[in-house]
Amino acid sequence: MPTKTLQIPTADGRADAFAAFPDGGGRHPGVLMYPDGFGIRPVLREMARELAGHGYYVLVPNFLYRHGPTPVIDLPAHIGEEVRPAIFAELMPLIQEHTAERVLRDAEAFLGFLTAQPEVAAGPVGLTGYCIGGLLALRTAVAHPGRVAALGAFHAPVGADGPDGLRGLTVEAHFGHAASDVTPEALVELNRDLDAAGVGHTSEIYPGTEHGFTMSDTDAFDPAGLQHHWDRLLPLLGRTLADG
Question: What is the largest CA-CA distance in the chain?
């Protein structure tokens, strides 16, 4: 499968990115995949290749590029609970500097770059994101309704911007929540906000999962949860993106 390491021009510099796309030439629907806070690393490249194998051009940007190229901080091969406090102590200040204004400036650059690639078909793209990346995907979808057709967000703080952060959402969306992140009561409230926004969506708690359940290099990894994620994401993209 073809893969590339790319540089995306932005208003604030150049963001490194990873791309994967199908063999055999041609043009394919584009998907912008926002990583979790740990950033681009082998597990994200593996997930991008998996998704590309279903017929998509997948672009994974380093959204913390202002602090350097991937890896922005040193990471072990396995991000276990014993190392997470030290990693988060280093990482959280960088994430906190990634303001909503920066997110929207970058989203414009990322979408423009993705749709300009010769392997990407014309038309709207899909978005997927994990943890903080799910929130970035949501903000991108709200800001660019005409350029985005679908949104999948997993173990993501999608309610962080409150009901106002959902009201501009017009694309079909799926929200896959970790059981450790969202109570059934909070899910009812979030889904009520989504209903009020008038957006087509599914929003559910994945049973028995911990925050980060899609990431195979963490202690939170849940193989059933990862498969559930593919079982929701692939049909969503297939029915919303042309030729997917």
Answer: 48
Encoded amino acid at 209, one letter = T
Overall pTM > 0.90: yes
Extents of the domains making up the chain = 3-240
Q: Provide the residue type at 236 as one letter.
A: L
pLDDT tens digits, residue range 136-154? 999 999 999 899 999 999 9
Q: Rounded to an integer, what distance in angstroms lies between the CA atom of residue 60 and that of residue 38? A: 13
Give the homologous superfamily in CATH for domain 3-240: Alpha/Beta hydrolase fold, catalytic domain (3.40.50.1820)
Please name which of 201, 194, 113, 198 lies closest in space to residue 150, comparing C-alpha atoms: 201
